[in-house]
Amino acid sequence: MANVSVYNMEGKEVGTIELNDAVFGVEVNEHLLHMAVVHQLANKRQGTQKAKTRSEVSGGGRKPWRQKGTGHARQGSTRSPQWTGGGVVFAPTPRDYSFKMNKKEKRIALQSALSSKVNENKLIVVDEIKFDEIKTKKFQAVLDNLKVSKALVVLNENDKNVVLSAKNIPTVQTALTNTINVYDILKYNTVIVTKAAVATIEEVYA
C-alpha cells in the first residue's frame, strides 16, 4: 500500500496515511481513461445542430432558365447547393451523441485516474478543510500553503463555507466523493482530498 503524507491547512505535515491499492494503486488502463473522458464529453453534447438540405429549402420549384441556348450551364433549381440560398449538401441533423459504459468500466477508469495522480505525486491528502466564514482569501491561502494552483478539491460533506470560498477561484473546483469523475481528475493538475473523503472513496470504489 502506498504511504502518503497528510497535511494541515497551514501546509505542515501532520502524519501519514496508507492508501488502499485496490483504489489508488491499480495498473492504469489508458484505454478506459480515454473512453471515460469521451463518454462524459459526448453525453454533455446537445446534438441540436441542423441545416436544411435542398429538399427542405423553400422555393426553387421552377427551372430558372431553359435547358439549351442561353450560354449558361444547365440548372434545374435555384435551391441546388451551388446557388446562394441553396441547400447544404450533407446537412447536419439533430442526433444523440451519448453512449453507455458499464459499471465495471467506469469503476476501473476512476481507479486508474486516481492511481495516476498518486504515481505522479499529484494527490495531496489534508486532515480537514474547515472555515468559519465564506472567504475566498482563506481558501487561496490554503492553496498557497500547499503550493498548489490548479486543483480539484474532493470533500466528504457539502460544506457551504468551503464550497463558496472556492467558487470564485477559476482554477479550482470542488467535488463530493459521490460526484468525482475521470474528466475532472485528469483536467486538474492536483487532486486535494480530505482524510474523510479518502475513507469514503476507498469504501465505495474498492
Automatic annotation (TrEMBL):
Instruction: List, alphabetically, the InterPro entries matched.
Output: Ribosomal_uL4, Ribosomal_uL4-like, Ribosomal_uL4_dom_sf
Q: Which GO terms describe its molecular function?
A: rRNA binding; structural constituent of ribosome
User: Which family, according to the similarity comment?
Assistant: Belongs to the universal ribosomal protein uL4 family.
GO cellular component, alphabetical, reads:
ribonucleoprotein complex; ribosome
Q: Which GO terms describe its biological process?
A: translation
- Which HAMAP family does this UniProt record tie to the protein? Ribosomal_uL4_B
- The identity of this protein, by name, is Large ribosomal subunit protein uL4
